[in-house]
Amino acid sequence: MKQNSKEYKRLLSLTVMEQQARLLGYQHIAGVDEAGRGPLAGPVVAAACVIPEDILIDRINDSKQLTSEVRDEIYQNILSLEAVDYGVGIVDALKIDQINILQATFEAMRAAIAVLKLKPDYLLVDGLHVPTMHIPGLALVEGDGKSQSIAAASILAKVTRDRIMSQLHEQWPQYRFKQNKGYGTAEHLEAIQKYGPCPIHRMSFAPLKSLHASRQLDFF
User: Fold this and answer.
1) What are the structural domains, with CATH classification, of the chain?
2) Which of 75, 82, 47 minimizes the C-alpha distance to 60?
């Protein structure tokens, strides 16, 4: 990649937050992001990713800005880079209902960070809050478009969760999880009305919560 190219400059701009952390003396900076806070079904998945200073990952961006095909390609690229350290944490729907989605997200993030090969000394976290871990860090709103390591984490989390939902589709095809990934599309809502919920639906989420309150729903 030419160092004066537009793409090179874009990728370089995504390392500014990491460089600022290094100037403060931090060496192992983990980007952290999640996928699946909003859906009515399935787990919330978080990922943590530490990228060495000398690596720029081609085409990396906020996972929502990429096609599924490009996400899959970048996902494989990240996994193929031996110098990149990453971890994934998964919290299922039952746990989400027990502790709420915000706390489940933090739990997934902590799990992802915990399985990194080397404990990070600084966190860059997409969103409003840094999960409590006694590790200093910075929360960045829309951080997946501002930091290479957060963008990588967003791709790892998104691809992992999409693959989980595709597998769950095989068990409960009537909800079409492969297509809607558990989000509350019109088709998904119609299936819930027709078949009722299944064990991976989040019963604390509207409209499932109100449906459950108005009538006893058996899991399909």
Assistant:
1) 6-171 (3.30.420.10)
2) 75
